[in-house]
Amino acid sequence: MNNSNKTTGRILVIIGLLLHLVVLGGAFITLIIMLLAFTAIGNAPDIAAAAGTVTGAVAHALGLVIYIMPIGFVGLILLAVGIIQGEARERWVFWCSLAAMISWLFLIPIGPLFGLVGLILLLTKKRFFEKPLINTNPH
Known about the structure:
With about 140 residues, the chain is mostly helical. The protein has one domain (about 5-130). It is built from four helices and no strands. Helix 1 runs antiparallel to helix 2 and helix 3 runs antiparallel to helix 4.
């Protein structure tokens, strides 16, 4: 295992995972915007005006998701390259990648497809992330 490839792989994995944090942060902000918008309906004297406000807020929130998803795609690519070509296959990479793939399941409409494919690939290749056993017994 080339040490330079492993270091490069770790860097790519870390950058990819940080980009996933941007996506998760954007999804969380979207959720907050939508919850605040729907709460406004219950407090509004004019339901029709409140419904228009909610529609606008939801449209802005979904627009935010659409703008941040390409960042997540770049993160996915960097994560895959770091694991495959960079040989970054430590246990923490597996668990962080698993969490990232699960987060994609909640980014509707196309996120679940990437999350499901990523989960299948990770779980079927889990043994690549396990450290090889070293036999210390000479006999």
